[in-house]
Amino acid sequence: QVQLVESGGGLVQPGGSLRLSCAASGSIFSINAMGWYRQAPGKERELVATITSSGSTNYGDSVKGRFTISRDNAKNTVYLQMNSLKPEDTAVYYCNTILRRFGWTSFSNYWGQGTQVTVSS
């Protein structure tokens, strides 16, 4: 089995910062990309940021320049540093990873349970 455990969400005022973490554990052979997506009420899930195993990053247009994604390959953990938060950043943030399990020959997509981020005064 594979588990993704997210942490770091909460309530923050506009202009504030939060740092999300997501640790992957279980029968993991290798991890390809890791990333974050978010879904606000009544909206579709959207890309926030992704990072490959070599460190290449990709960001959604709405968070460029404010959010930074990073990862610790030794800990199978991905981070999302969120600065200059806006009310429109309010959403459930989901961790995502593409990994290969021991004994498997292909990569599969896994999601965390989600963590709520609320930006409000």
List keywords for this structure.
single chain, 121 residues, mainly beta, 7-stranded mixed beta sheet, 4-stranded antiparallel beta sheet, 0% helix, elongated
Describe the structure.
By secondary structure, the chain is mainly β. Helices cover 0% and strands 59% of the residues. The chain is built from no helices and 11 strands. The strands form 2 sheets. Strands 2, 4, 5, 6, 9, 10 and 11 form a 7-stranded mixed β-sheet that branches. Strands 1-3-8-7 form a 4-stranded antiparallel β-sheet, with no helix packed on it. A hairpin with a 4-residue loop joins strand 7 and strand 8 (77-82). It is elongated, with a radius of gyration of 14 Å. The termini are far apart. The mean pLDDT is 96.
Architecture blueprint of SSEs:
Layout: E1 2-7, E2 10-12, E3 18-26, E4 28-39, E5 46-51, E6 57-59, E7 67-72, E8 77-82, E9 91-101, E10 108-111, E11 115-119
Question: Globular, elongated, flat, extended or rod-shaped: what is the shape?
Answer: elongated
Oligomeric category: single chain
- The helix/strand order is EEEEEEEEEEE
Count helical runs.
0
Work out the strand percent. over 45%
The helicity comes to under 10%
The whole-angstrom Rg is 14 Å
Main β-sheet description: 7 strands, mixed
Short description:
This protein is mostly beta strands and 121 residues long.
